[in-house]
Design goal:
Helix content is 13%, strand content 39%. By secondary structure, the protein is mainly beta.
């Protein structure tokens, strides 16, 4: 249920040389199918194609086959990962689906993969994946290990959280922190920015802040 990292399966079938392509004949594709067993739990299966991951099998899927194709000259791969609701998220907030306490907030700004100050634009729910997707407008990017939030007129991006947490859109400015899971941002702590300022200033006065963080 709780692997570290992931299992990557390279798909390289031995094929007979394809006939020379002609104007009227498109290149041949390789097709493969996967079907989950009835006990498939605690993991998700992705197809790695063109540098992106496409979800093939969510956790506890319906017992039906999923097929996919790729050109024989490309490198196909499958990626098996632990479900995002595993203990990594629980440890990030020291217990799933509850607000972080002051100590957890201070540690989150020092150790998270991303720290984004911004506001909530929208919240959409994916019942199949059991995920909520939070649309975020970023006022300032304090840290991001990968370009999650891209400039396109304004800084915007999305952050995921388990559906069972019941996230709702709300007004105000927040400090979104969290970690990356195969290119997707997952939420750990998201205090209101004014509450974070109060917590950080109090910790700094007592020399208990674990790292320096710019306030403005």
């Amino acid at each position: 249920l709780y692997p570290t990292g992931a299992l990557r399966l390279r798909l390289a079938p031995r094929l007979h040389p394809a006939a020379p392509p002609t104007k009227d004949r498109s290149p041949r594709h390789v097709t493969a199918c996967v079907k989950p067993s009835g006990t498939f739990r605690g993991a998700q299966l992705y197809l790695e194609r063109g540098g992106r991951l496409e979800l093939l099998l969510p956790e506890a899927p319906r017992p039906r086959a999923r097929c996919f194709s790729w050109p024989p000259r490309e490198k196909g791969a499958l990626m098996v990962t632990g479900s995002p609701r595993s203990d990594r998220l629980c440890l990030a907030v020291a217990g799933a689906c509850r607000p972080c306490n002051d100590t957890e907030i201070l540690m989150a700004i020092c150790t998270s993969d991303f720290v984004i100050r911004g506001s909530t634009r929208s919240v959409s729910n994916d019942a199949e994946l059991q995920e909520s997707i939070i649309g975020v407008s970023a006022a300032r990017i304090h840290r991001q290990k990968f370009p999650l939030f891209q400039a396109g007129g304004r800084l915007a991006g999305s952050i995921r959280t388990p559906l069972r947490c019941g996230v709702k859109p709300g007004p105000g400015t927040f400090l979104f922190t969290g970690w990356l899971h195969f290119g997707e941002a997952w939420l750990s702590c998201a205090p209101r920015y004014r509450d974070f300022q109060r917590i950080y200033q109090g910790a700094r006065r007592s020399s208990q802040n674990p790292c320096e963080f710019p306030l403005d």
